[in-house]
Design brief:
This protein is α+β, with helices and mostly antiparallel strands and 489 residues long. It has 13 helices and 18 strands.
Length: 489
């Protein structure tokens, strides 16, 4: 029997035993994971979508790949990718933190089930599957045949707040394992491949990837292997260090603006673009207004500013914008999604977009100013994480970034004040909702922007001059928590 046929057989034997013995432990374990999107929602059912043993039955340890559907009481449903290690109990001390539970019956009776990515032996096996393309049941592994992927690369998990899981192999490659998955190519595979084909070096090019091919569905992107940019500085941490040292960051912000513009220009050349007419612009503004209304209901602190915030979206709708260019963009750009490499250049990473948005939405063309607004808001986040608040630092970085962007594209983002204000406002509203749910101690950061953005629109920026710096919002007396790796994950 061929390996592929054997894998299909093993898939069938596992699928014949629905989650059964695994369900109770997964019900308890899933909501505790950083990447689980259904926090606060009661789970009504777990469904086995796919199961493949990536090692022969009886191997110790075993590695089981699962796609699990999660139905919640509010009617929502998601699909998650799990890689479960299986070995006799008790687990070695180094793996104890990865324990999910102990199976009492079924094919794994008497064994410990644990997070497989925490086991170096199993993580190494995953890399080997990526080095040798082929099918394993519904899983298909593929790679760039010209890329060199070392066989012996010790794996280690990437720490920090993430909505997925990442493994670093040696110092050469990093594998992102997507947790919440759905039909269709993930932008974090699609866009870097398009940029590599276009000759853009600002984004690490994928060297290998794997997908699930399920009946009646588009393939699901499950993981992407890319070069690891050894010696790089995370843009968020670099900005915080400069702030802490009282150092200027405008040269870096200017260079980052140029890098962002290069990526946008390459994406516009490589993939289809559209022009938003008046009706599409009005729908865009209506979506922002609807998100504001939903957030105000959830975050009462926004109520005094609702009318002013809505004014930014009303102005966008009233602009009757015609011919607003829209293209594929990063979709969730902030300083934590940038790296200053060892040679001093800037790279952009993590093109997945906002994981909470449906995949189809994340793949739609949008105005590039959405990415720009994300970076501008990130400078404000960095400045407000510093004590005392450093508004002049943020304003200087914001101006330098826009000037760097204009240096490449020929157009300063501040020359579209209505569009930029709407997107900054929409981003701040998103931030308020996020912080209210996940980090209430940080809510004061977007609230300061909410106050500023709710004011009446200021005079438009005149080309050739820097926009006037906005007045600093009242300093918060709330102690700042230790900054995470990224401002928003």
């Amino acid at each position: 029997m061929s390996e592929a046929a054997s894998a299909r057989s093993r898939q069938g034997s596992l699928a014949a035993v629905p989650l059964g013995p695994l369900e109770p432990m997964l019900r308890a374990w899933l909501p505790r994971q950083r990447w689980y999107a259904g926090k606060g929602r009661a789970i009504t059912r777990l469904r086995l979508v796919s199961a493949v043993e990536l090692l022969p039955p009886g191997s110790t340890p075993g590695l089981v790949h699962l796609l699990v559907g999660v139905d919640c009481a509010d009617g929502s449903a998601d699909c998650y990718q799990l890689l479960l290690g299986v070995r006799p109990a008790p687990l070695p001390p180094a793996l104890a933190p990865a324990l999910i539970g102990h199976a009492e019956q079924g094919p794994y009776a008497g064994q410990a089930v644990y997070e497989g990515l925490g086991d170096p032996r199993l993580a190494a096996l995953l890399l080997e599957r990526l080095r040798t393309p082929g099918a394993h049941g519904p899983l298909r592994f593929d790679r760039d045949p010209a890329a060199l992927i070392p066989a012996e690369s010790a794996p280690r998990p990437l720490s920090g707040e993430q909505t997925n899981s990442s493994l670093i192999y040696g110092d050469s490659h990093i594998l992102k394992v997507f947790r919440r998955v759905g039909p269709g190519v993930n932008p974090d595979l699609e866009l870097p491949r398009a940029l590599a084909a276009a000759g853009c070096s600002r984004v690490p090019a994928p060297v290998a990837w794997y997908e699930a091919e399920l009946p009646g569905s588009e393939p699901l992107t499950l993981g992407v292997l890319q070069p690891y940019l050894r010696g790089s500085d995370d843009g968020w941490q670099l900005a915080l260090r400069r702030l802490g040292a009282g150092a200027d960051f405008t040269a870096e912000a200017h260079a980052l603006g140029r890098a962002t513009a290069e990526v946008h220009s390459a994406l516009a050349a490589a993939l289809p673009t559209v022009a938003l007419g008046p009706e599409q612009t009005a729908r865009l503004a209506a979506g922002m207004t609807a998100r504001l209304a939903a957030t105000v209901r959830e975050v009462p602190a926004l109520q005094p500013y609702e009318d002013g915030l809505r004014g930014a979206f009303d102005a966008l709708a009233a602009s009757r914008g015609s011919g607003v260019p829209a293209q594929r963009i990063h979709g969730d750009l902030h300083l934590g999604q940038t790296l200053r490499t060892a040679d001093g250049s800037w790279a952009l990473i993590d093109f997945e977009g906002e994981p909470a948005r449906p995949l189809a939405d994340r793949r739609r063309p949008e105005p590039a100013v959405r990415d720009i607004a994300g970076i501008l808001r990130s400078f404000d986040y960095a400045a407000r994480s510093h004590r005392p608040f450093a508004p002049a630092w943020a304003d200087a970085c914001r101006a330098a970034f826009c000037e760097g962007y204009a240096r490449t594209t020929g157009r300063d983002p501040r020359e579209d004040p209505v569009l930029l204000r709407a997107y900054e406002t929409d981003k701040a509203v998103y931030e308020a909702r996020y912080e209210s749910r996940h980090r209430p101690d940080w809510l004061h950061v977007p609230m300061a922007a909410i106050r500023r953005l709710s004011e009446r629109e200021r005079p438009a920026h005149r080309p050739g001059r820097r926009a006037a710096a906005p007045p600093a919002p009242p300093a918060s007396t709330t102690p700042h928590p230790k900054p995470p790796r990224r401002p928003l994950a």
